Amino acid sequence: MAEAANNVVETINGDCHDFKSLLSSLDRDFLVRNNGDQVKIDSLKGKKLGLYISASWCGPCRRFTPNLIEVYTELSTKGDFEVIFVSADEDEESFNGYFSKMPWLAIPFSDSEARKRLDEPFSVMGIPHLVLLDENGKVLTEEGVEIIREYGEEGYPFTPEKIQELKDLEEKAKKEQSIKTILVSRSRDFVVTSDGSKVPVSELEGKTVGIYFSASSFKPSADFTQKLAEVYSKLKENGEKFEVVMISLDDDEESFRQSFGAPWLALPLKDKSCEKLARYFELSTLPTVVIIGPDGKTLHPNAADAIDEHGIVAYPFTPEKFAELKEIEKASEAAQTLESVLVSGGLDFVLGKDGAKVKVADLVGKTILLYFSAHWCPPCRAFTPSLVEVYKKIKEKDDAFEVIFISSDRDRASFDEYYSGMPWLALPFNDARKSSLSRKFKVQGIPMLIALGPTGKTITKEARSLVMAHGADAYPFTEERLKEIEAQIEEMAKGWPEKLKDERHEEHELVLTRRSNYVCDACKENGQVWSFYCEECDFDLHPKCALEKETKADAKEGWVCDGEVCTRAS
Q1: pLDDT tier at 15 (50, 70, 90 boundaries)?
Q2: Cβ contacts of residue 495 below 8 Å, gap of 6+?
Q3: Euclidean distance between CA atoms 461 and 548, whole angstroms
Q4: How far apart (Å, rounded) are the C-alpha atoms in residues 3 and 49?
Q5: How confident is the model at residue 492 (pLDDT cuts 50, 70, 90)?
Q6: Is the distance from CB of 524 to CB of 544 less than 8 angstroms?
Q7: Strands 139-141 and 129-133, bridge-based pairing
Q8: Phi, psi (rounded to 5 degrees) for 370
Q9: DSSP letter for each residue of 195-218
Q10: Do the bridges between strand 357-359 and strand 288-292 make them parallel or antiparallel, or are there none, so unpaired?
Q11: Is there a contact between 472 and 502 (Cβ–Cβ < 8 Å)?
Q12: What is the dihedral of CA 113, 115, 120, 122, to 10 degrees?
């Protein structure tokens, strides 16, 4: 045990870790299995190691561990790869419960000093963290989690050369992409139907294919599935050579079945290619429908919005078709009116505060803010009081202004409670127009504030930022008004020095800086627009606080100077 006596991790030849000093301690030369068996550290000689820092309380860890177990099981037949669990759990009960599911070795939970010591030689900034070492103890990579996720057992033996080889193959596959290179794996050359029947991937050659990434537990995906099912069915009825292959990101069989909105095809549930394709197509949002043309090349990275908005008209999803759709959208925006936005079938009203129906026609000619928000959303609840204050100030000046609340609340009670604190109009709870409005204005997150002018045309989708920056002064949110505000801001600072020194911050000069919101470090009051600011120290002074000493020094007795103007004191 003398080799581990110094409680430091030794390296051999400067870049190779000695397994014994890495994993043992003064009174321990073994690791443990989840059944309590002890395994001598010396038995790891000649093996490649994965040091897996993880914890039961960590959601990403719990999601990654099954992937690592699968890879470990595949590689176990080689006999030269081992994983060592290094627990970040806070109690032994949690360690035992988590470790009971793992087929590999672990540093005993009781040896907290050895577990903590492994943070020193490796850059453990977060978990899960997987360090891969070769048989000599040389670090192959500290990006083991990403490599396992991306390449699985195909990444073995995890050397830089092997990973580069796989990346080169991916680049080649992209250049030579076909429906087969996308959907066929080493163990599978088929996709499945909703009843589990196998369909050879070869039958998709020559067709336009939508690769549909979906998760039925995610409401936007569930809602879109219905729309895609309608489009799919119509195209099939028309005899078009179009197919959908679903890539389900669901975890259970029931959710997987629910994702079949129509008799389309799918990769099997939890197929290894699902995550691989998500990375291949750089999946960033759901729902996503990647369009693959008849030649196997990617026609469009995500046609979901086009399908949602235009339906069957978006087919065949070619660049020419998208250019045509762009012109349609431009024409639609040019012809947009308040009624075309808010009236749908018999739904031609919004709700007043007393519950009475207010006809959309009665709002024509007003500037309207569409407020997408929800009670469950903390940023929404934080922004709403500011918007209420702005609303009241604008209404005092101009009654031709209104806000319409469009709720994303999940139940009527939440809607009622939230709306009770708002002085404006609203779409009824669970109104069918909410979905179409969200699609039209591409609402990806809330709170969102859309400004419509008196003609009903969209002025800006960034009205929330304008309200936060300028309050009621932003009204009526037009480009012309913003130019006026900008001119006023520049005029405000005329005559002020670009830099100054102040005894309250002697370390650095303060620079005249545009700042949206801050707290003055002198008077402790909120400030906006201009500050004399030290970026290095995050120090702010109101212009009035920064300039008051200068103006007093400049003024004669009985006079007050402000910028370039001196006036007689009253």
Answers
A1: low
A2: 563, 564
A3: 40
A4: 19
A5: confident
A6: no
A7: antiparallel
A8: -95, 115
A9: T--EEEGGGGTTSEEEEEEE-TTS
A10: unpaired
A11: no
A12: 170
CB 165 within 8 A of CB 159: no
Long-range contacts of 350-353 (CB under 8 A, 24+ apart): 350/404, 350/425, 350/426, 350/427, 350/428, 351/425, 351/426, 351/427, 351/428, 352/425, 353/423, 353/424, 353/425
| Residue indicated by tokens 């006023």 | 488
Q: Would the pLDDT of 9 be above 60? A: no
The arithmetic mean of pLDDT across residues 140-147, rounded, is 92
Q: What is the pLDDT of residue 203?
A: 96
Residue 370 φ/ψ region, left for φ over 0, alpha for ψ in the -120 to 50 degree band, beta for the rest: beta
pLDDT digits 0-9 by tens, 303-337: 998 998 899 999 999 999 999 999 988 888 889 99
If one counts every other C-beta atom within 10 angstroms of the C-beta of residue 442, the result is 11
The amino acid present at 34, given as its one-letter code, is N
Residues 6+ apart with CB under 8 A from 251: 270
Among 177, 147, 189, CA closest to 276: 147
Q: How confident is the model over 154-211, as pLDDT tens digits?
A: 899 999 999 999 889 888 878 889 999 999 988 899 999 988 899 999 999 999 999 9
Residue 558 has a pLDDT of 55
C-alpha dihedral over 249, 254, 260, 263, to 10 degrees? 130
How does DSSP assign 299-344, residue by residue?
EES--HHHHHHHGGGGTT--HHHHHHHHHHHHHHHHT--HHHHH-B
pTM exceeding the 0.85 threshold for the entire prediction = no
DSSP assigned state of 155: G
- pLDDT for the residue 559: 55
**In the predicted structure, residue 561 carries a pLDDT above the cut 70:** no
Q: Which amino acid is at 291?
A: I
User: In this predicted structure, what is the pLDDT of residue 250?
Assistant: 82
What gap in Å lies between CA 175 and CA 177, rounded to an integer?
6
Q: Which domains does the chain have, with CATH numbers?
A: 19-163 (3.40.30.10), 179-318 (3.40.30.10), 338-485 (3.40.30.10), 495-569 (no CATH)
Average pLDDT on 489-499 reads 89
